[in-house]
């Protein structure tokens, strides 16, 4: 099945911000590379980046940058929809999304999610859903557009509305002393999170 990886990099990074100057956490350095570079490498099938603002900041990655196609930046579902619309125009039947602040995603993420089948398959770990780490049938784009217009904002709510499957990535990890790092879907939201992520990246 033809599918495209879409990196979701549209978050506002509010908890990372220490002052009035906006911070794009996807571009923060982690183990000598921008954080998003780790996500691109782990996903292995990235074809586009979903992000608002100046697309030139992502030029070094050589991927198309997709702005939200609905107003008011309603959250990650808007990025999923932008990815679906772009992928459909390119002839892809599915997309796999990964959040740009999740640098330790499993390397088999795309294969496992695609292999699960269903209209949507979302990653889970230790009983917790990670709906931005998911595969989506692009034929859902009209339903998602309607759901966004009706005020839906939570990715897991939309996924469940179309009977999403779940793929469990729970397993052993060397960072058992730090429950945050034990999660392969650990996402970097704060400066403290970035310190933890640096520790993990350098120990890998």
Features of this protein?
Spore Coat Polysaccharide Biosynthesis Protein SpsA, Chain A, seven-stranded mixed β-sheet, 30% helix, alpha/beta, globular, 204 residues, 6 helices, two-stranded antiparallel ribbon
Quick overview of this protein structure:
The protein has helices at residues 35-43, 76-90, 109-116, 141-149, 155-161, 191-203, and strands spanning 3-8, 29-30, 33-34, 46-50, 65-66, 94-99, 120-125, 128-137, 165-168.
Explain this structure to me?
The protein contains six helices and nine strands; from the N terminus they run E-E-E-H-E-E-H-E-H-E-E-H-H-E-H. The protein is of the alpha/beta class and 204 residues long. The chain has a single domain, classed as Spore Coat Polysaccharide Biosynthesis Protein SpsA, Chain A, CATH 3.90.550. A seven-stranded mixed β-sheet has the order 5-4-1-6-8-7-9, sandwiched between helices. Strand 2 and strand 3 form a beta hairpin. It is globular and about 40 Å long. The chain starts with a strand and ends with a helix.
The CATH architecture category equals Alpha-Beta Complex
- Classified by CATH, the class is Alpha Beta
Q: What general outline do the C-alpha atoms trace?
A: globular
Fold-level CATH name:
Spore Coat Polysaccharide Biosynthesis Protein SpsA, Chain A
Give the overall pLDDT as a whole number: 89
DSSP E strands, number: 9
CATH superfamily: Spore Coat Polysaccharide Biosynthesis Protein SpsA, Chain A
Briefly note the structural class of the backbone. alpha/beta
Fraction in beta strands: 15-25%
Poorly predicted runs of 5 or more residues: none
The helix/strand series, from N terminus to C terminus, equals EEEHEEHEHEEHHEH
- How would you classify the quaternary structure? single chain
């Amino acid at each position: 099945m033809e599918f495209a990886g879409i990196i979701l990099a549209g978050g506002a990074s509010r908890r990372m911000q220490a002052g009035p100057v906006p911070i794009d956490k996807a571009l923060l350095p982690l183990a000598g590379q921008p954080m998003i570079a780790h996500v691109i490498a782990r996903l292995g099938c990235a074809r586009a980046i979903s992000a608002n603002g100046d697309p030139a900041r992502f030029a070094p990655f050589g991927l198309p940058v997709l702005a939200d196609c609905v107003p008011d930046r309603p959250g990650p579902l808007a990025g999923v929809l932008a990815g679906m619309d772009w992928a459909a125009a390119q002839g892809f039947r599915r997309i796999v999304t990964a959040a740009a602040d999740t640098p330790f995603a499993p390397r088999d993420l795309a294969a496992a999610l695609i292999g699960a089948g269903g209209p949507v398959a979302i990653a889970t770990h230790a009983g917790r859903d990670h709906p931005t780490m998911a595969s989506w049938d692009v034929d859902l784009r009209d339903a998602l557009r309607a759901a966004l217009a009706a005020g839906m904002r939570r990715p897991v709510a939309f996924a469940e509305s179309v009977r999403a499957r779940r793929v469990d990535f729970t397993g052993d990890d060397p960072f058992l002393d730090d429950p945050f790092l034990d999660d392969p879907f650990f996402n970097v939201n704060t400066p403290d999170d970035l310190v933890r992520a640096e520790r993990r990246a350098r120990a890998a």
